[in-house]
Amino acid sequence: MATREATWAYRDDHDEFARTFYRRFGDGVVSSIGIGTYLGDPTDERDASYHDAIVTALESGINVVDTAINYRHQRSERVVGDAVADADVDRKAIAVATKGGFIPFDGARPADPGAFVRSEYLDTGIVDRDDLVAGQHCIAPDYIDDQIDRSLTNLGLDTIDLYYVHNPETQLKVNSREAVYDQLEATFEQLEERAAAGDINQYGVATWEAFRVPADHDSHLSLPEIVERARAAAETVGNAATHLRAIQLPFNVAMADAFTVESHDGAEGPQSALWFAHEAGLDVFTSASIMQGQLAAELPDDVAAKLSGETSAQRAINFARSAPGVTCSLVGTGSVEHARENVDAGRYEPLGADAFDAVFE
């Protein structure tokens, strides 16, 4: 797993970046730009392109890789594992994150997805039918336990640095909010046990809507409640403190809700997800930093004028990692060319707090 000594040494070996490029994560440091692995066809050619891009990024100054077991039908996890092994970088200098929640296919979409889910997960007892939502999503403890084992195998790692419960708001399609919190607490207990065993180092919750929508939205989940449930889980298991460490949510020029929407109850009233996370000591990893490529083409002129970078993609990345409380902004990196462009974004200064606030005036 990533260690304090190795991540700080990695930072010292890559001292050509602008200020605050490396940021604290636990007692170590991580790059404020990370590699995302969501997009792309499930093909050998795409695997090879991803592999080379990840190796390039890791050897150039980015030491965060984010994936999920369902991305590209488990291919993304397997490519990440190969790239981490092949890169000329100490494994202990790299923070590897993955997620569990969506039922993954194996290498390719099966001809009969329903039959695959039944034979692989329902008939084997890994998933209880009552815990399965929309035929594809489950966050029950036993299922997540199984997914951690599969991810460790795919990645070829002894320890996953950060393991996310993936899009728990999906469960709200059929379950009450209280039922989802109860299931999260039970799953957090399982994650606390896996952390105590050393299989994961920290865990978090990765979302698409849950933390950035108004409190009365159907997909809303409360960060204060999730933190309390994690603390209760740690106490039940007997851990001295919770291993809940991070959240992941979309944040970019066009999707700035995590900064602007105050939907979480803080000590002095409603707070945005970014502000609450900061006060609660949670690291924030942002997804969709260039809106799955859309912002690589063009940014609004008034916003682009305030940001540094040679390309629209670089400016969009620098907007995302300028937000207060953000530890790392994840960017899909499917080619060596894009890897180099994303790395180079870190050579420019991010916006200061006042300049960032001015974007919203």
SSE order and pairing:
Layout: H1 4-13, E1 22-25, E2 28-31, E3 33-36, H2 44-60, E4 64-66, H3 75-86, E5 95-100, H4 113-122, H5 141-155, E6 160-166, H6 177-197, E7 200-206, H7 223-237, E8 244-250, H8 257-260, E9 262-266, E10 269-272, H9 273-280, E11 283-287, H10 301-304, H11 312-320, E12 326-332, H12 336-345, H13 353-358
Parallel strand pairs: 3-4, 3-12, 4-5, 5-6, 6-7, 7-8, 8-11, 11-12
Antiparallel strand pairs: 1-2, 9-10
Helix pairs in contact: 2-3, 2-12, 3-5, 5-6, 6-7, 11-12
Task: Report what the structure shows.
This protein has 13 helices and twelve strands. With 361 residues, the chain is α/β, with parallel strands linked by helices. Helices cover 39% and strands 17% of the residues. Strand 3, helix 2 and strand 4 form a beta-alpha-beta unit. The chain has a single domain, classed as NADP-dependent oxidoreductase domain (TIM Barrel). The radius of gyration is 19 Å and the shape is globular. The longest helix has 21 residues, at 177-197. The protein has an eight-stranded parallel barrel with strand order 3-4-5-6-7-8-11-12, surrounded by six helices. Helix 3 (75-86) crosses helix 5 (141-155) and helix 5 crosses helix 6 (177-197).
